Each structure stands twice: as structure tokens, then as C-alpha cells.
Amino acid sequence: MVHTILSRLATSLLVIFGASVLVYCIMYLLPGDPVLLMLDPSSATPEMIENLRVQLGLDQPFYIQFANYFGDMLRGDFGKSMINSDPVLPKILEHFPATLALTALSSIIAITIGITLGVLSAIHRNGVIDFVARLVGLFGISMPTFWTGILLILLFSVQLSWFPAMGSDGFSSLVLPAATLGLVGAGFIVRMVRNSMLEVINEPFIVALRAKGLSERAIMYGHALRNALIPAVTVIGMLIGDLLAGTVVVETVFSRQGIGRIIADALMAKDLPVVQGVVFFTSIIYVVLNLLVDISYSYIDPRVRRAVRT
Amino acid sequence: MNRSISWMKYMALAAVLVMVLSGCGAAGGSTNGAAQASGGDQAGQAEGGNLTFALATSPDTLDPHRSGLAVTVRAIRTIYDNLVVQLPDGSIKPWLATEWSVSEDGKSYTFKLREGVKFHDGTPFNAEAVKYNLDRVIDPATKAANSLALIRPYSSSEVIDEYTIKVNLESPSQAFLGNLSQALLGIISPTAAQKYGDQLGKNPVGTGPYTFVKWDENADIVVAKNKDYNWGPETVENKAAPHVDTITFKIVPEEATRIGSVQSGQVLAAETVPPQNIAALKNDPNQQLLQANTVGLPYTLFFNLRKAPWDDVKVRQAVQSAVDVESIVKTLYLGNYERAWSALSPGILGYDASLEGSINPDINKANQLLDEQGWVKGADGIRAKDGQKLTLRYVDGSPNREKRNDIAAIIQQQLKQVGIAVEVEITKDVATVIYQNWDYDLYGNSQVNSDPNALYAFYHTSAEGQRPTLSGLSDPKIDELLEQGAVESDADKRVEIYNQIQQYLIEQAVILPIYVFPYTVAASKKVEGIKFDSLGYPLFNDARIQP
Hints:
Chain A is mainly α. The termini of chain A are close together. Helix content of chain A is 79%, strand content 0%. By secondary structure, chain B is α+β, with helices and mostly antiparallel strands. Chain B has a seven-stranded mixed β-sheet, sandwiched between helices. Chain B is globular, with a radius of gyration of 26 Å. At the A-B interface, helix 3, helix 5, helix 6, helix 7 and helix 8 of A face helix 1, helix 2, helix 3, helix 6 and helix 9 of B.
């Protein structure tokens, strides 16, 4: 087990490095000059533009810029924003909790709705609950987050005044954004859980359990669900990553603070150090998430645990 | 059958929403949106309270000298004062400077400064502070943005005594005094500037009616009433400390959310209302709509005169006749934006009202002009000459700010009728496409400015080594007029000069003016006294919140 985790950690470091290099290259090759974006194009003189370029080290060749950048990052210095000279790392750390809270609550919403509806719809196949669950699945997958967000604002803020339309003050402002993201996630999980439950229900061991006289409830929740959850956990692991990415849209729609908002703004402004910093940071989170998913398999499914041991 | 399915859809939707909310309804119910907006229990006669104001974009910095965005001005207007103020009629009145005189040659200004003014950090306001400010703008280390263009042709200043300063220019400028009234040349505390360096934008200190409290990035900027304030300018009634305790500028980029948050009462006012929401807000008994036309250059499409065939005045005039600006503005802005007729917007000194109604769509004239120039319609309906198709490359920045992308689409349709193919390119990267590669035939821009001298930067032949202007116009006659306009001290003569320039630009079809941008604010009826300065920026000195 320890050995597996260590080797996974080593590949993880490689993944993080790769992601950094890739993003650096993409940002470098993207059209558009950050200096021109920083200065007002209608009043900046060529002299001002040149001075700023030298100050930011942008007159250096690509490999030197990259080496400087990566060297600093290894020393824990993520640099400063080109736009407002804010140091990048403290900025990310300051905004991360808000994004974490959003991702966490939306995951809880997605998993709760997703698994409940998925299981119920498989058990009551072709019934009313099944119909509702499939509709939720379709709705969650096909509605753009952006659109869902605005619908929720119109209904729950403007019409009913139950929740604030925007902001990051307290729990009540977290509800609508988390519900928006949660609905998307629920859509995926419902479909996944429903399908794998249906498969498991038709397997011979269920018939065997029935023959042994176990109650239907014990069979479904004690045995079928446990088996159906393994593919669902994979999906949920990936989904949390998706939800993290979804915060870019949701944080903008609901004017929340968070790293999604930061990266959206930084991309617009071609603020290289900030984009790099956020990507570096989030790639670490993705890697850790995947690691956790892998470990959780072995707890749900004894076969995996045994396979690791041998 | 269909009906029953759609009914089930609603049921399903409702069921989902109930499930989502049942988990978290209890906690959410305790905080009511409307209660947040009024911010505390400020009973009493409309004194105090927290005014929440939703901004459409985030300010870049609260350092006026380094900002390049109009949205910044909405916030920094509350923190900083200027030496002078400009009234809507264009006249310049005292503010932090009580009086001033101009030398014979127009190259130096001597200001008497107001005594007893203190910056929010306690630093006294005096001639030294003013000198520090003006020198700071032109110091390359400051990395000044728009303020640098405003302060030109400033060269140096001399402190005469504690409250007298002499400001020297390289050449006379009629725009200089007016520019000193602009918020981007607001007076900052020298102590704070030295202490915070390039972080002044996060720790702004001025002499204004409100003091800076905090700025949570992407969330809000909070300013609080400056109790010692008693030097308000003539543009406001209340010269003393403001009525409200605090203003919270919330940053809400998403249009629907911004309007939703003012309708739900979560904020008391929200800026930049999209035209499609204006009618609904006008009919809302709880809301009011405040509007101020911005002054300067209206949204104008510039031909790139350096590229053929747009160097040919007849071809440009053909486009001018083929584009129906009236219907574009009516269709897109539903009667809420005014159509522009000239290179300047109404309300600025020298605006030539005689141009109103001068250009009307005339398809026959457009066709005739193009025929005369030898552009012949081909089988595909597109004109060609010497094997060259008549195509116009129309570049616009993304996203669809003020529906500018839609203007491009309509013009594309309109020009097709006379046989001009329009290629529309929407790009975020206008800095490269427009200002570096000059790869466009038509490109739109607008500018907020208080003086007609703003035309200089757009139409004067650009000097060797300087970046070319958007139109690439180079006409000695116009150059001369622009130079005269910058220095002419007789107001009537100045108006005459700028009238000539505006007429030339329309007659020669150098530009297609499209619309005058109204700054629109939706506010709760509880809010009173939000005013607008001569450029169309909001002022909060008189603002009150009725309980």
C-alpha cells in the first residue's frame, strides 16, 4: 500500500511539472502582448512600452524567462501579478477557502441527490421516481451552468428573496452557487449510479442472496449498492475536479471571490504569473484528489485491497 | 399529450429544487436580502446608512495616476479631490485651489490653495503636496497610465509659499485646466505614496469626502464618510461631510446578476443597466432609473485611411450613405441611447449641433458613388475592381460590450445591399490587431473627456516614431486647426475651430459616429441625491438613504 502511494506520488510530481510547462508554453504562444494590455493603448508611448517590457523581463529569450520562472517557483516564490503587483501565492491562499467551500457544498449536494435518485430509480425502474431521476440527469448534464445560475437567481433572489443574488458573505450566499454546480454534478452521478445499479441487480449473486431469503432492503442497500458504488466513486472523483473547474463560471455569475474568478480575470489580462500560480496550485489538488479516489477503492472493494497486497 | 409532458417537467423541476433547498433552507432563511441592503438600523432623518452600489467591472487600482479604467473613477471620485472642478457648462471653478492666474504666454499657472485641508492620514495639504503629485505623474517610475496623457504638456512646478504653487507647461494648452478637474489627476497624500509605493492602489489616501476602508478583491470596495470634510465642489449641494456613513461598491460583472441584485434589494443601486432591462425597471414601483450621457468622443467607427480603397473619399462616402445608423441605434438600444452625429458628443465645448440630421441613408447615392469609382457588381452581388473584391475588414473587441458586436453584424447586412462584403473579426486582442499590426478597415472606439482637445490624439498627424492614430488621417489643414484649438484662449474662436474640424470629419467621411453612451444606474427609490459630474461619473456627496 505504502509502496503504491509513493509511486503514485512520484508520477504526481511529474504531472504537476508537465502541467506547468504546458501552461507556460500556451500562455507564451498566445497572441497578445501583456505589456500592451497593461498600458492604455491610446496614450502609451513606445518608450513606456519598452521600459515596462525590460522591467518585467519580457525582453529575454523564452528559455531564460522559463528558467527564471521555474527556479523562483521551486523556492516558493510564485512571483507578482503583472497588473497590480500583488504577490501571487498569498493571493491564492486567501481566495482558496471560498472556492473550497463552494466545491465542498456542491459536491455534497451532487452526491446526495445523485446517489439517492440513482439508487431509487434503479430499484423502481420505469416508475415515477425513475422518470424524475432521468429528467434530473438530463437537466443537469444539458443545462449550461451559466443559465442554471441565472434561473436560480431570478427565482430565489428576485422573486422569492430567499437568498442573496451575489456576494461571498456567509452561508446564505453560498447556497445558490453551490446548488447551481451541484445540479450539474447530480446529473452525472444519477446516470452513473442508475446504470451500475441496474447491472448489479441482474447479476447471479443477487439471485443467490434472494434465494437465501435475505430481505429485499438488505440485498439492495447492503450488497447491490456497495458493488454499484465502485464505478460511481471514480466518476465522483473526476466530478469534484470538474466542479472545481466549474467555479470559474459560477464565481463569475454570482460575483463570488475565489480562485476561479482570479484565473478568469488573469487570463483576460494575460497576467502570466497569476495564471501559472493558480494552475500549479490546482494541479496539485487534482493529483491529491485522484490519489484519494484510488485509496478509497480499496476500502469499498476488498478485491482491490487484495490485489495491491500481492 | 404534449401538455401533460410539459406539466411533468415542471413537477420534476419543482421536486428537484425542493430537494436542493430542503438541505439548506433553514440557514438561508435567516438572512434576508433586503435586510442586508439597508445595512444596520439607521433610523433618524435620512442620515447614515450604508449605500451599496454594484459596479460592472473591477477597478484595476485605486491609485488614480496609475489607473486606465473608467470604472475606477466611480470609486476614486469618493476618495480624492482635484485642484479644480468643471461644471456641466464647461466652466472651471475652485476646489482644492481657491483661485488661479495664467501668465501672458499661457505657459504657467499660479494656484492659490485652500488652507486647512488635511489628507485622511493627517498629512497637511499644501503646495509641496501638489508639486509632489504633478511630478509623480510624469515620473516614469510611477508607471502612470491615462493620467499621463491628461497632464501633458506639464513640465515642472515651483512652490512659491505654503499655499501658492506655480505650474509650468512646455506649451500653452486650453485643455490643461479642465484636465486638472479629472479624477485621474486626483490629489493623493504624498506620505501615503512614499509609504506604500506601488501598493498605493491598495491603500489609497486622499482628501475626499470618503475615506478608504477596505478592498476585498473581486468582492467589494468600502469607503466611509470623512467627518472633517467641508470643501465640496460646486457640482454638489452638500459641501460638508456626506450624509451616508459608508458606501460599499460591490463588483458584479454578470449583467443579469447585477440587475437581479438591485431588484431583490440586495444592493441599493447598480450601474450600467442593459437596454433590454430599462423598460422593466421604469415600470417597477420600487426602482428609479438615473441616466447621464457621458461626454467626450461618442462611440465612433474609424476608417483606416492608410489602406486602399478606404483612402478614397468617394468609397468612404458610399459606406456613409449605405449605413443606416438611425435604425441600428433604435433596433439595438430600444430608444434608450442617443444617436451620435459628430466626432464629439453633445454637451462638450465646441460640439457642432448643425451636423445633426446632416447624413441620412441613401442607397442610390451609395451605389452611384461606387459605380463612379469603377466598382462593378459581380454575379455574387459583391463589387469588384481590377479583379479585387470590395471587402471591408471590420474589427471589434470582445465581449459584446454595449452590443458593439451586434452593430458589426447589422452593418455587415446593410453594406451587402450595396455590394460591399464585410468580414467581421471579433477579438479580445485589439492591442495587437489594431494598435500593433493596423490590420483593420473599420474599428470603433470612444473616450470620456471634458475638452474638445481630445480630438488631437485621434486626428492629428502622428509624429515620426509615435504610434499612428486610429484613422491614420493626415491633413495639414486639420493639423493646424487642432494645434490652434489646443491654445486658443478666446472661447468663441475655439468653438469655431472645433466646428470646422467636426464638419470636415463628416464631409470627408473619415468616421461613422454611432451612439452617445448614457451611463445608466438603477436604484431603489429609497436612494436620493446621486448626482453626476460633467463627464457623467456619479457623485455621492448628496446621497441619502430614506428609511
